[in-house]
Amino acid sequence: MTNSTRREPRPAAQRKQAVLDRLRTEEDVWVATAGPEDVPCLVPLSLHWDGEAVWLATRSTNPTGRNLRRTGAVRLSFGDTRDVALIDGSVETFTTAETDPDTVRAYVERCGWNPSSSKNRGAPYLFFRVTPTAVQAFHQEHELVGRHLMQDGVWNV
Fold it and tell me: 126, 93 in Cβ contact below 8 A?
């Protein structure tokens, strides 16, 4: 891309709205965690956004479930390499019994399946509440400056 065809970066408020729209409408999110000895793990999971936090669910014995419990940290990612949204978050873990029934209902409605259902055999599912601590959003290189929309859990916009 030459300077003559360079696009102007989106305003920060527009980028924030794009991230919030994705949280409300996307069905799945890429979930990146680190295992013991910092072995990376990346999986797609269904999500429910409650307006303050992202809710995820996976089996307690899956690498992602173990990593989320062990570290209490996660990076979520939406989009492709030309339309990126990255969300770092702190993680709280809940059994299905500990999870507020309204949250479980909202998750089931949004995701189309119930992690606490008896038909899900094997190790139990856990719910994970991800509270965003940092958010970045950018389209390619021209938006790298100004990509940090949230830091330390506070929106910069």
Answer: yes
